[in-house]
Amino acid sequence: xxxxxxxxxxxxxxxxxxxxxxxxxxxxxxxxxxxxxxxxxxxxxxxxxxxxxxxxxxxxxxxxxxxxxxxxxxxxxxxxxxxxxxxxxxxxxxxxxxxxxxxxxxxxxxxxxxxxxxxxxxxxxxxxxxxxxxxxxxxxxxxxxxxxxxxxxxxxxxxxxxxxxxxxxxxxxxxxxxxxxxxxxxxxxxxxxxxxxxxxxxxxxxxxxxxxxxxxxxxxxxxxxxxxxxxxxxxxxxxxxxxxxxxxxxxxxxxxxxxxxxxxxxxxxxxxxxxxxxxxxxxxxxxxxxxxxxxxxxxxxxxxxxxxxxxxxxxxxxxxxxxxxxxxxxxxxxxxxxxxxxxxxxxxxxxxxxxxxxxxxxxxxxxxxx
Length: 370
Ligand SMILES: Nc1ncnc2c1ncn2[C@@H]1O[C@H](COP(=O)(O)OP(=O)(O)OP(=O)(O)O)[C@@H](O)[C@H]1O
Fold this sequence. Notes:
The chain is an alpha/beta fold. It has 2 domains: 3-82, Fe-S cluster assembly (FSCA) (GMP Synthetase, Chain A, domain 3); 100-359, 3-Layer(aba) Sandwich (Rossmann fold), CATH 3.40.50. Helices cover 34% and strands 23% of the residues. Strands 8-9-5-10-4-11-12-13 form an 8-stranded mixed sheet. Strand 1 and strand 2 (37-43) form a beta hairpin. The longest helix has 24 residues, at 336-359. Adenosine-5'-triphosphate binds at residues 108, 111-117, 139, 142, 144, 222, 276-277, 313, 315-316, 319-320, 323. Adenosine-5'-triphosphate is lined by residues 108, 111-117, 139, 142, 144, 222, 276-277, 313, 315-316, 319-320, 323. Pfam families: FeS_assembly_P, ParA. ATP binds at residues 109-116. In the C-terminal section; belongs to the Mrp/NBP35 ATP-binding proteins family. Keywords: ATP-binding, Hydrolase, Iron, Iron-sulfur, Metal-binding, Nucleotide-binding. This is Iron-sulfur cluster carrier protein.
């Protein structure tokens, strides 16, 4: 029996959670080959009976296909039980994304304030900082992320992993992306009721093959509703980023959205506030600032949420054009001022996330009360 052949066999076994093979994912430890015995430890991010059984069976099958006489002993271990912070925390019974270190919800009080624009550009700037980032567009009523990333009209594929259908995210600019817009037509979203739509978001969290990631950025629908509730009932949300424009009216709605995260049984920490459309800068006068919508909305919201102003994004034509053209503003190398503003937001989000993970335990998943 050759150890290399056994390693090769195990490299054909796919982790149903991440889509990676067990060797690439570094899940096989202490491999011992003493013919006819083959034993090893499988390092698992979760210990659901179903998941353990699937992998055990797949490992046995792969090794027996090469050495039919082998006696295969698989020991299952769960180092995640001692991991700290992020959305990992303690042993969570059924965390569907144990391999995602931080889940960040981008929220706003009302539509049109630029929440999706912030989600997309924040994700790309975090990626530029060296993080592995994914994007989930849960804005069921106005999924704009497919257009912003040039993915409109494309559909994710479904593939069976150990007999169970799994959805494979699409990729844009190196990032895995899922959007309700890939599966629901805008006219359909309006007639489908909230619980149905939040079911789709839950499915995207539980049944997608998300790769291991540092951040999953989730673009929420505006306001408070079923999707927000379903999110905090499905995964441990590391923190929320609030988006507002400087106006009083936007601020009043943003405070309502903020309060939802602070509900006693929700308790998602607010990482900070992005103030969007802070001032207007005409393309031909890049040093000019016209405060069309007033001032200080972001600062006030940061104070009220006991967090920080993560950054201010100007209202510039290139951001809207980039969004419409599928080339997000952060990727526009000619617009240095805007790029810098997005990078500042990303650095602050990374810093606040690290600080939050240092200081607080993982956010508990909200229990579903029946
Ligand atoms: N700073 C900005 N400068 C110029 N245009 C912007 C800016 N931020 C957002 N926009 C544009 O405003 C429109 C609305 O933005 P976006 O879709 O991000 O808002 P939203 O809050 O996610 O809205 P909804 O929840 O309704 O989808 C888009 O056309 C976008 O390109």
